[in-house]
Amino acid sequence: MTVPLNRIETMALGIVVERRRGATPWADWSWRPVSVIPGAGPVEPPGRLLMEGEGWSRSHAATLTLELFRSDTEGYRLNLSQDPPRLWVVMRPGADGEALEPCVVTASAHEGEGYQVGTDVVDTVPMPPEVIALVRDFVEQHHVDVPFQKRERTRHFEKEDRRP
To answer: Does residue 163 lie within any of the structural domains?
Structure first.
C-alpha cells in the first residue's frame, strides 16, 4: 500500500448520528451528526444504538479516519481560530437509499466548505479537546506562512488597438 507523502497524522473517530422523526410529510426521518468519539474502534454492526428517546435515537454509525495533511494547515488554522473549533462530517445515502451514512470527516475549514457545494449532506460537530490538541500540534509543527503575491495582469490590447 502506498502512503501519500503529504499525509502525516491520522486519528480514528467514531461518528455519532442522531435519527429524528421527520418534521415534514416528505421525510419520515432526518439524520445529522451530533458528536465524535476520539480513538473509537470499528463498529459492528454499523449503527450500534447508544441512546434513544421518544422519536429520536443516537447511534455509533461509523468509524472514520481523520487525516491531517501538510498542504492544508491554513484550513486547520482557520478552524482553530473559530469558537468553538468544529469537525465537518459528510454523509451520503446508504444502501437502503433512505438512511444517511457518514463517509468523510475533516478538520479543514476549506475542505468542509468544498463538500458543501455538491449533493452531499454536510454538518459540523464540536471538536473534542483531544482532537483540538492533535490539530494544534500538527499546525505548529508543519505550518509555513506563504506571503500573498498579487498577480500582474497581462494586457490583451493597447489603447490604440481598441475598436470604436
So the answer is: no
The residue written with cell numbers 457518514 in the block is: 102
Asked, for residue 159, whether it belongs to a domain, the answer is no
Distance CA 12, CA 36 (A): 10
Structural domain includes residue 39 = yes
- The residue range of the domain holding 68 is 9-143
pLDDT by residue, tens only, the chain of 164 residues: 444 456 688 999 999 999 888 777 777 778 889 999 999 888 877 778 889 888 888 999 999 999 999 888 889 999 999 999 999 999 988 777 677 889 999 999 999 888 888 778 899 999 999 999 999 999 988 877 777 778 787 776 655 555 55
| Residue 15 three-state SS | strand
Which grid coordinates are listed for 148?
A: 500573498
Residue 102 lies in a domain: yes
- Please tell me the total count of domains within the chain: 1
Strands (E), 22-157: 29-38, 48-53, 56-69, 86-93, 100-106, 121-126
